[in-house]
Predict the structure.
Amino acid sequence: MARARLDAWPHALVVRGNPVDDAALGSTPVHWRTARTPGSRPLSFLLMLYAGLLGDVFGWATQQDGRVVTDVLPIKGGEHTLVSSSSRQELGWHTEDAFSPYRADYVGLLSLRNPDGVATTLAGVPLDDLDERTLDVSLQERFLIRPDDSHLQVNNSTAQQGRVEFEGIAQAADRPEPVAILTGHRAAPHLRVDGDFSAPAEGDEEAAAALGTLRKLIDASLYELVLDQGDVAFIDNRRAVHGRRAFQPRYDGRDRWLKRINITRDLHRSRKAWAGDSRVLGQR
């Protein structure tokens, strides 16, 4: 883990073999609001300890009520949504929280239960297949990325509805500022894109063509990673996009259940967005 923080490591680092007492874990909750269970608490601590080897953990004031450790599980009625609680709808590939300059450097996923072997999807920057002009355009601030639906008020508790941070999310959705979808050195750029929430700047046909090319190449290069019970994956949110294949939910207490965490290499770079608590950020 310590070496991985310094290396130009692959799209994801997977730590296998962590024991999970399935009986003590209990049933998969019906909603993330009830997912802070006694049986899952030690595993949340384990994920936090691993994450601390890579950087600083944080959460979002507008996502799952500001929890730092969040839960990924199917919710009845949300099968076809564009958030992680979907199931029958494939969760499209994305950079986690691509809309924000304070997005995570790594996303940690701890599999508590995955009886059907539902796959996480991954892909990196398809540099070998990008023509020079597409690369040039992708490195320019000619693209709009809006917040994904997990940050909407409707997907948080009623008690959270008055938070000022939701106004920032609404502004980012209505008036996103142009950004580049590739950043850094052109020989090893970082990726910032969301397949469902990215678009070219209005009227920019060249940017539309570049985004279309990148979409096709990422679609063609997606591969699968199945996280079995006890597996922990740390996805490099700068070098890879991730998503999830569609599956049939059970709703019988045995559904797929993951703990998720965001990690930044430098928490102080987000000082402007601290929502009172330094580990909880808010788009303002």
The longest strand covers residues 106-113. The first helix runs from residue 2 to 6.
